[in-house]
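pls ignore typos typing on phone
NAP + seq
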Amino acid sequence: MKILILGYGKMGKAIETIALNSGHEVIGKITSKTNTNIPTSADVAIEFSNPESAVANIMFCIDHKIPVVSGTTGWLSHKKDIDLYCTQKNGTFFYASNYSIGVNIFFKVNQFLAEKMKSQGSYDVEISEIHHTQKKDSPSGTAITLAETITGILPFKKEWSNIETHDPSALVIKSKRIDPTPGTHTVKYTSATDDIDITHTAHSREGFAKGAVLVAEWIRNKKGVLSMDDFLNF
Ligand SMILES: NC(=O)c1ccc[n+]([C@@H]2O[C@H](COP(=O)([O-])OP(=O)(O)OC[C@H]3O[C@@H](n4cnc5c(N)ncnc54)[C@H](OP(=O)(O)O)[C@@H]3O)[C@@H](O)[C@H]2O)c1
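k done
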């Protein structure tokens, strides 16, 4: 398979290694300095750039009929517009805030736990996330996915906040930036009598890169707006 890598930073390089080891060909490695004359003959594009470039990169792929797998975080206020654009153009667009298979199982555990906590008003809940200091967005896209699942289920949590607050209806997300952490997320329920914590700890970027290459192989002949739920058949 011919792969175009849009965003050749820490993730792009990890994706290249996995793609080459899986027998694929990398036909372009695009950075901010090489984003003109982008090759359009790719079977699939994998996009891990930055919040300012993601929308243009994804639209470029849709316009050139290249199925695109994006993992860039921090641009999701435009996601609905991109989904619509993809549908109108009969394109292929896959987005996940986290490509680690383990994290996607963790998302399901988070959902299950929130369902069980729905009627347990004596518990409060908060999320914490730790990443390396070069991460541009805060909170992480993964923390937002965890938070939006919880606020969608718990009647006593209305919205998430990245700032400490005493408002009981706010779900606080605490973000820390400590090198070289690839990504650690904890959801913690606390009551006067006990705590329940669930934590996912990434050991390296390899899990995200492997997931992105597996998804790229899977979407090659598919159409539409797709997600991890479709890929993992959850
Ligand atoms: N979904 C997931 O599983 C997952 C996992 C890890 C990270 N991420 C996200 O993936 C993104 C990339 O992370 P990273 O750690 O690889 O960041 P990074 O090391 O900063 O790399 C970003 C890359 O994007 C390039 N870039 C900038 N403008 C571009 C443009 N217009 N077109 C194409 N490429 C452009 C940069 O080029 P220059 O060096 O020239 O600026 C750089 O090569 C972030 O949003 C991060 O949060 C997602």
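The chain has two domains: 2-99+206-232, 101-201. Residues 2-99+206-232 form a domain with the Rossmann fold fold (CATH 3.40.50.720). more later
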